[in-house]
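haha ok so turns out i had the wrong file open the whole time. this is the CORRECT one, sorry everyone. sequence first:
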Amino acid sequence: MRIFHFIVLYFLVLSTHAYGQTESQLSHYSDSLYKAAKQIGNREDKAVALLDLSFFWSDHDSSKAFHYIAEAENLLKEKRQAVYYQGLIAFYRASVYFDKEPNKAKDLYMEADRLLEDVKTDQIPKAYRYRARLWGSYGALLQREGKAHEYVEILLDKVIPLAQQAKDSTLLGNNYQNVAINLMNLQEYDKANQYYDKALDLLRNKNNASEEKLTLYVNAARNALYDKDYHRSKRMLDAAAFTATVVPNSAYMPNYHTVAGSYHAAMKNFAKAEEHFSEGLAFAKKINNDASIAALLYDQFKAYQQNKRQQEAKNKLLELLPYIEKSASFANKQMVYHDLATTATELNQYKEAIHWYEAYKDVSDSLFADHNRTYILELEQKYQNTEKEKELLQIKSQHQEQSIALQKSRTLTMVAIAVCILLFLIGFGWYYTQKNKKKILAQKELLLKEELKSHQQETKLNLYNAMLQGEERERIRVARDLHDGLGGMLANVKMKLSAVTDALKGNRVDASTISNLQSIIQQHDRSVNELRRISRNLMPDTLLYRGLRDALQDLCKGLTQPAVMIDFHSAALKENYPHPLMIAVYRIVQELLTNALKHSEAAQIWVQCAEEGDVLYLSVEDNGKGFVAGIQGDENSGMGLENIRNRVALLNGFFEIDSNPGKGSSFHIQIPTR
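then structure:
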């Protein structure tokens, strides 16, 4: 679920008004802003308007953005040396570097904060507002690096307190919403609701904030939908629909339709859901907003997937694919490729599933490499900062040498104080050392107990392994004796009985005698068949001569009953697994199927076995009455499940049980093949 939240948040961030405008519309809007700035009489206010114009162009044309910053600096003249305007210029320059050079942008944001923090004039409230904005942008850069928790901390500790000091309720409301969006992305829905409510309290009665309120209602509805609070989600969507009548051409309308479509899909009203999705897609295509188109297509996929409409879900992913592949986000590609692979697997399209799993793996490797590059750049930046700090320390040391002469008179007093502090530290250190020794002893004792427990477990597994090996040898011996010894004897008996019957047919013998002999032969045939069945259970021929897949398939067919269907599916299984591994897997499946047939009261059992990356994935599921799964060693676990746990442990594998009364049972096992 978290990956899905990531793509939603990424598309929401991109879905701004500017992304829906053509080049001519951008130029027209920019010209109108420039004319308005030129009509401002106050020189400083005009310079700030030009800086805002540079902020507008920072997402579209860096050269134009820097041009307006330079024009503002020329207009300020000597005022540009004031810390307030130095801070503003640093802030707007950082905005231009935001996408292209994020590390440089972060440095400029911090420079702007240091400058604006020193403002001592009547511009302090404005400085608070700019500081709130720059910290929000700084946190957004951290969020892009995958540091969502750090972004939330910056919003709570920096941005919101500064917005409160600036007394800007719109800025405060927007940042309450930013906190809520990030908490939603971290799946902390209850906390997110609290911040959405705070934002609503600030923006609800503002007449000139329809765009912000539409965004807020849609995001709050999305959070409630994730939290399965459908009543709140419906209430927020109704409020969003009413607000949309005020701003019907808002670039956020596609997001409203995708949330509304997802809500109706959850309510099983697929006709209404399709209506919203189609309307949202048409609007997003009209304004050329690829991000909103992608978000809508993905929500349609989730709606189909949740309602088991796998082919339609796959079609939506394929329709989404071109938008994802031209995106710079490796995380979004990774998610969509994984969903395509999973959906193809559920549709039994294994060849196509393998293709998408390979694409998913390649993107995962690229994402890992990208994280490494980011980490290296961070280390280089830290190194450069350290070098700068060293230079500052050298300068400070020179000043300190000049002030030593003034401090000599205080030296004796400081020495006396230092001695007292030293004695205190020595006493405290002794106390702390003794305390640590006790703690270390306790930890050693605990570690020793754990090692003893591990050794006992290992001894238990070794004994169990020896028992299993002896049991399998005995099974093989008994199967061979039954087949070669008793089987041969029974075959010989049949031949003699048949010969007697044939001889008697030529003579005048009572018909009832012939009938009794034939009945004996039939009983003999049934005995031979039962002998063969017992022999196969002890050591199946298919496992010895045809491999694991055929052996499991024969096992499932042999145990299928009129009232219980057993389906077997396999993928990418080899034919040359080690014999002990095949025997262990066969016994595990045999035990699980036997338990299901005896206790589950199921009408359908599914067995799946596949290999990927030198790991054997095995699952047995049924639609029976289920049970309360006990933990390892619990008396409710049962001897059969305990035997399976031990077999899996001997193979260094992983065993998981997912079962609840009335909801069937699922057993999932992973076993390394090397």
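The two ends are 32 Å apart (CA to CA).
again sry for the mixup
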